[in-house]
Design brief:
The structure is a single chain. The protein is an all-alpha fold. The chain folds into two domains: about 50 residues, Homeodomain-like (Arc Repressor Mutant, subunit A, Orthogonal Bundle); about 160 residues, Tetracycline Repressor, domain 2. The chain contains eleven helices and no strands. Helix 1 packs across helix 2 and helix 4 packs parallel to helix 7. The longest helix is centred in the N-terminal third of the chain and has 24 residues. The protein starts with a helix and ends with a helix.
């Protein structure tokens, strides 16, 4: 038990040191040796817990998703209002990432590269991606309108919300307003619009649902 605790503490120390380095010097400006030095562990120990910088990035994705899910779950327990639940999903993400805009900017060229293990559409990030998508499915679950949708159309709606939140993150990285209040305002205005048209989703589904589902299925997103 004591050994497992020490191991977890060492891993956490290396992880914290890596994020501090990434935030200050960027991903490319940081080496595993730098991280080991800051964490006051041997280089071999750093590689033992994290075989590469990408492994640390994946752990970062998992940690941020866990924190967002915790905030969202707490809010979901308090309200069935879909607008409020969606707002938490978006704003919690921005709050969790508030210190990491520089880090995210450095990661974006890697995130978009389909050949890297940290690509947002890569196999290495599948579990985090699916957890994030599932959070949006939970957010809209109380809406009576979703009960009128078939599984494929509901999945299309959820993926659309998840894709919207990814677009918001890109804007967030470039938002230089104080506290990124422009991004938060964009979220609120956009969600107000989304929720205003949500009640007519069952009517739109027969017109667009099958075509959109086919596109997403071809892209392996459905």
């Amino acid at each position: 038990m004591a050994k497992a605790k020490r191991s977890a503490e060492t891993r956490a120390k290396i992880f914290r040191a890596a994020l501090a380095r990434f935030r200050k010097h960027g991903l490319d400006g940081t080496s595993m040796r730098d991280i080991a030095g800051d964490a006051e562990v041997a280089v071999g120990a750093a590689y033992y817990y994290f075989p590469s910088k990408n492994a640390i990035v994946l752990a970062y994705y998992e940690e941020t998703q866990r924190l967002v899910a915790e905030q969202a779950s707490a809010a979901f327990a308090e309200t069935d209002d879909v607008r409020e639940r969606l707002g938490v999903c978006f704003h919690a993400r921005l709050d969790v990432l508030s210190r990491d805009r520089k880090l995210l900017a450095a990661l974006f060229h890697t995130i978009a590269d389909p050949h890297t293990e940290v690509s947002i559409f890569g196999e290495g990030t599948r579990s985090v991606r699916e957890d994030s998508i599932a959070l949006f499915a939970r957010a809209i679950a109380p809406a009576s309108v979703t009960a009128a949708l078939d599984d494929a159309t509901r999945r299309v709606l959820v993926l659309a919300l998840w894709s919207l939140h990814m677009g918001v993150l890109l804007y967030f990285v470039h938002d230089r307003s104080r506290g990124q209040h422009k991004t938060h305002a964009l979220v609120d205005h956009t969600l107000d619009l989304v929720c205003s048209v949500l009640p007519i989703a069952p009517e739109l589904a027969p017109v667009f649902g099958d075509r959109i589902a086919a596109v997403l299925r071809e892209a392996d997103l459905l």
